């Protein structure tokens, strides 16, 4: 994979946590805190939150498992729409990782799909502790219309979001670079879009270390006082 797809945009070392802290943080226990199916059930946490959003079956749960070095922290499935609630995970008492229901196509009743979609978007618009959304995009398909709708809502809510390409091992280097370029062309129209695009593969451990470093930069580092 080319250097462009590895670390495109304008991300600098200021966006990355100290390597020692990154190793420490992701070696800590990842603990399930709560699963929420309705907005009024949302718990209040004091820690910063990083949420993982994307179309159904884009690979959110697989990426979370890879980031935390766990095989089953988040449940994975080949059936779109398996994640049907917002799941919160504590990472070492420094950060909350949030696995959101997928939007778009799902093998579930339409009323359920509308409920998950409304819950997810209400959370994304109104969560004060939300530091960043990792918006997952399948590298084979690029940004879809449903992704653009979420991006527009995050822009309007002034919620910082970063595009993370998944399944990068399924495309060629040229295809991956073109996907990154197409995302870069969207940047002027999306004011809350983070400059860095990360290309990852949960199964090949590709891009995982770099994404960990960016996520860790958003955590509360209690060791530093």
TrEMBL record:
Q: What does this protein do?
A: Necessary for normal cell division and for the maintenance of normal septation.
InterPro entries reported for this sequence:
G_ENGB_dom, GTP-bd, GTP-bd_ribosome_bio_YsxC, P-loop_NTPase, Small_GTP-bd
Protein name, UniProt field: Probable GTP-binding protein EngB
Q: Enumerate the Gene3D superfamilies for this protein.
A: P-loop containing nucleotide triphosphate hydrolases
GTP-binding as a keyword of this entry, yes or no, is yes
Please provide the Gene Ontology terms (biological process) for this protein: division septum assembly
Domain of life (superkingdom): Bacteria
Q: Which gene encodes it?
A: engB
Coiled-coil residues are none
- Please name the taxonomic classification of the source: Bacteria, Pseudomonadati, Pseudomonadota, Alphaproteobacteria, Rhodospirillales
- Entry keywords, A to Z: Cell cycle, Cell division, GTP-binding, Magnesium, Metal-binding, Nucleotide-binding, Septation
Q: Report whether Cell cycle shows up as a keyword of the record.
A: yes
According to its UniProt record, which protein family does this protein belong to? Belongs to the TRAFAC class TrmE-Era-EngA-EngB-Septin-like GTPase superfamily. EngB GTPase family.
EngB-type G domain mapped to chain residues = 46-221
GO cellular component entries: cytosol
Q: Which metal ions or organic cofactors does this protein require, according to UniProt?
A: Mg(2+)
PANTHER family this protein is in? ENGB-TYPE G DOMAIN-CONTAINING PROTEIN, MSS1/TRME-RELATED GTP-BINDING PROTEIN
What would you give as a GO molecular function for this chain, any one? GTP binding
């Amino acid at each position: 994979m080319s250097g462009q797809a590895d670390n495109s945009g304008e991300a600098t070392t200021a966006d990355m946590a100290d390597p020692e802290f990154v190793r420490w943080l992701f070696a800590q226990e990842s603990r399930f805190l709560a699963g929420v199916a309705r907005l009024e059930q949302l718990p209040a946490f004091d820690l910063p939150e990083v949420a993982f959003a994307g179309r159904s079956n884009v690979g959110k749960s697989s990426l979370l498992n890879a980031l935390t070095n766990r095989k089953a922290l988040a449940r994975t499935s080949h059936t779109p729409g398996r994640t049907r609630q917002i799941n919160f995970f504590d990472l070492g008492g420094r950060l909350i990782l949030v696995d959101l229901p997928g939007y778009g196509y799902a093998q579930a009743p339409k009323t359920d799909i509308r409920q998950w979609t409304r819950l997810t978007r209400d959370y994304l618009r109104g969560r004060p502790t939300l530091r960043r959304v990792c918006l997952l995009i399948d590298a084979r398909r690029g940004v879809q219309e449903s992704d653009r709708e979420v991006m527009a809502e995050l822009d309007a809510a002034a919620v910082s979001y970063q595009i993370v390409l998944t399944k990068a091992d399924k495309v060629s280097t040229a295809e991956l670079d073109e996907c990154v370029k197409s995302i870069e062309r969207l940047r002027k129209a999306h004011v809350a879009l983070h400059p860095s695009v990360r290309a990852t593969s949960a199964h090949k451990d590709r891009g995982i270390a770099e994404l960990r470093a960016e996520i860790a930069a958003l955590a509360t580092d209690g060791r530093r006082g």
